[in-house]
């Protein structure tokens, strides 16, 4: 995803941040070194001891796993996507927060996402589940928290999704959050519960540390527009001034818009006379008169 900023009304597109922070650089190097080691020696031993296995953490007391699983990745695409997102969005956050605070956020949210992933397994054990759970690996929990923090910090900044479609970060985050939520438990081999944990822990962290600014989404404006839409059922047969009742979804005009339409019809009568109005215009004139009269009677 390219970052696409707008300055003085002109798009300013660039790929990635202007400068990479020291903390991001250290995380990239650490992940790369561990990835090479796992490729040379085999993932099975590494995943068994350092991947996040709910059974081992809860019953085997391998309490280091919610931290170490962040540095293990299963393939080049797995590590490539996570490190690309870390570099693109984490560098700017580190420049804003400082290295120490950024590293704390990364570790806390990544480990918190891991702990969040233990909850379903623990509840399943209490309910009698005795099945095998594969180990969880990857930095995605922390990366999702970074994406959330970036959306809160720069909600109206645009990124190019698939190098083609410009989308504001706040809407991209809403889409990703929704897709993560509905994908939990779908059995595709991806730990969506860990991604969701990163979002949840990241949200609480930002709220607690005063870095929560919201996504600047005009909910009230959307609701107000939705409030001007009514659905008319077929069973509702009450006519309005003899005209056919419109069915389905349609937008209800406010009083000022109705008066503008009414004034237009009255101006036409002044110019050409009432008899020159079409039948539809005459019916509409009666309907507008009735509507405006009723609105006036109901006004507080």
Average per-residue pLDDT, rounded, comes to: 78
SSE series: EEHHHHHHHEEHHHEEHH
User: Mind telling me which CATH architecture of the largest domain this is?
Assistant: Up-down Bundle
At the fourth level of CATH, the homologous superfamily of the largest domain is: Rhomboid-like
Q: What integer value in Å does the Rg equal? A: 29 Å
Q: How much strand?
A: 5-15%
Instruction: Look at the helices and sheets and give the structural class.
Output: alpha+beta
Q: Strand sequence of the main sheet, in spatial order?
A: 2-1-3-4
Described by the principal axes of the CA atoms, the overall outline is elongated
- Strand elements, count: 6
How many structural domains does the protein architecture include?
2
Quaternary state reads single chain
CATH topology category name of the largest domain: Rhomboid-like fold
Estimated helix fraction: 55-70%
CATH class of the largest domain: Mainly Alpha
């Amino acid at each position: 995803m390219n970052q696409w900023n707008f300055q003085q009304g002109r798009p300013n597109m660039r790929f990635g941040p202007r400068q990479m922070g020291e903390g991001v650089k250290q995380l990239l190097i650490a992940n790369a070194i561990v990835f090479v080691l796992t490729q040379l020696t085999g993932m099975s031993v590494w995943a068994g001891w350092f991947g996040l296995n709910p059974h081992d953490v809860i019953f085997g007391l391998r309490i280091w796993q919610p931290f170490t699983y962040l540095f293990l990745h299963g393939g080049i695409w797995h590590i490539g996507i996570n490190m690309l997102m870390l570099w693109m969005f984490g560098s700017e956050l580190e420049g804003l927060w400082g290295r120490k605070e950024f590293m704390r956020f990364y570790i806390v949210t990544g480990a918190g996402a891991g702990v969040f992933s233990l909850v379903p397994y623990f509840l399943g054990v209490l309910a009698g589940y005795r099945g095998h759970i594969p180990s969880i690996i990857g930095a995605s929990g922390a990366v999702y928290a970074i994406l959330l923090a970036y959306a809160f910090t720069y909600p109206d900044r645009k990124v190019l999704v698939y190098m083609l479609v410009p989308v504001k970060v706040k809407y991209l985050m809403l889409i990703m959050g929704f897709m993560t939520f509905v994908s939990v438990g779908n059995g595709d081999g991806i730990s969506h519960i860990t991604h969701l944990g990163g979002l949840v822990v990241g949200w609480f962290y930002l709220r607690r540390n005063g870095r929560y600014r919201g996504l600047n989404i005009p909910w009230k404006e959307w609701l107000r527009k939705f409030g001007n839409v009514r659905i008319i059922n077929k069973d509702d047969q009450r006519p309005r001034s003899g005209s056919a009742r419109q069915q389905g979804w349609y937008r209800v005009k406010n009083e000022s818009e109705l008066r503008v339409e009414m004034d237009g019809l009255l101006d036409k009568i002044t110019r050409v006379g009432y008899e020159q109005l079409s039948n539809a215009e005459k019916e509409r004139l009666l309907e507008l008169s009735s509507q405006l009269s009723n609105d006036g009677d109901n006004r507080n």
